[in-house]
């Protein structure tokens, strides 16, 4: 038996800046199984030169490339990032 999965559309490219990242994993256990436990339930994420670096309480906890972060996390720009974009 085969199952068909709807292909995800290409994730949006993340611009350099600061974001609040929330794993798309529904539970902590799923996040842990996918290697996202250190990000659960949310973390500050800084994008610089296509690298996503995650922080909890000011301490770097993980990093990955920006495309992976865009695909696996719900990312909300922090106020400072939104203000920088609107000024451009």
From TrEMBL:
Superkingdom per UniProt: Bacteria
Full protein name: Uncharacterized protein
Species whose genome carries this gene: Pseudomonas putida (Arthrobacter siderocapsulatus)
């Amino acid at each position: 038996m085969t199952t068909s999965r709807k292909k995800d559309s290409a994730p949006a490219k993340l611009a350099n800046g600061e974001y609040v990242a929330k794993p798309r994993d529904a539970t902590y256990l799923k996040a842990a199984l996918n290697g996202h436990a250190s990000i659960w339930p949310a973390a500050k994420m800084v994008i610089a030169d296509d690298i996503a670096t995650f922080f909890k309480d000011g301490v770097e906890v993980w990093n990955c490339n920006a495309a992976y972060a865009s695909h696996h996390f719900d990312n909300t720009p922090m106020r400072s990032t939104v203000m920088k974009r609107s000024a451009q």
